[in-house]
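Weekly modeling sync, notes
Attendees: S.R. (lead), two postdocs, one rotation student

Agenda item 3: backlog of single-chain predictions. S.R. asked that every request posted to the team notebook include the full sequence so nobody has to chase files. The rotation student volunteered to paste the first one in as an example of the format we agreed on. Action items at the bottom.

Example entry:
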Amino acid sequence: MRLLMLGGTEFVGRAVVEAALGRGWEVTVLHRGRHEAPPGVRTLLGDRTAPDGLAALEEDPGAWDVVVDTWSAAPRAVRDAARLLRGRAGRYVYVSSCSVYAWAPPAGYTERAPVVEGASADADRTDYARDKRGGELAVLDAFGADRSVLVRAGLILGPYENVGRLPWWLTRMARGGPVLAPGPRDLPLQYVDVRDLAAWILGAAEQGLSGPYNLISPQGHTTTGELLRACAEVTGGAAELRWTEPEVILGAGIEPWTQLPVWVPPGSDLHDALHSADVSRAVATGLRCRPVAETVADTWRWLRDIGGTAPRRPDRTDKGLDPEVEAKVLGSAGGTEGAGSAGGVGSTTP
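Predicted structure, as returned to the notebook:
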């Protein structure tokens, strides 16, 4: 198989490239040159935000079995690339987002749920949901429904993460001491390891799939408790999880998802949207999700290998809780659910 990866040097794109190389594929990467491309690829340089950003691709004589695109800004960049490549590639895989569904999608929503209105393939940058939907429309316009794969990803974790969610939790656990753990501990979470996402994308290309797919783990794949316990254990066990009721956290003005990454309160529209998708279509076509402990351990290993500081995308909000705010909430939350003892992560109460 011949792959053209638009991007390919960070997070999702890099995972796709490494997985493709591991399968023996021929890989071409178009990127801006800000980061080094993985070894073993053919490199084209171009900035899709510039007027002539696709010049290297226009001049290249190559043809590909599949194009993978993770773009999340102005949809017109996807439009331009897809139009240029529609006669030179067999299939276009666009890594979209579950954010394209009209708010608020009900628990158990499938790929048939209504999508946001007002998106356009010709648009400049607007908001994340409409930009991703505009990217989908651009791909459909150029490649048609039968040669397009719309990967509606949810929460993505794993090595190379440049958004700041799992790296923040790992860094916080490594610091040790009492940790504000947002309850309930058995709250189900949905996410996908970036390497499992990459493997599914390549499998979709090999199978000749088309259409939209919700791409996250099945409901119940893990819980908040399992995720945070794995983070505490892999970083050395110096952290003491203090399980705290959602009402206490929200009452303190702490923002779910950003200040406490990954977590959103149970029963909320946000939880249904982020952690309650129906992914049976993806599972039926080959999605396999590794255990959360493996994702956490491999991310921690990668984080240590690069010196402990994860790269950060400049177009994403800061993640994490200020230590002073955390200490204040823990100090005033005396009877909250599951306060831990001095024995560490393994001795928190039920």
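Discussion: group reviewed the output briefly. The chain has twelve helices and 15 strands.
Action items: rotation student to repeat for the remaining queue; S.R. to check formatting next week.
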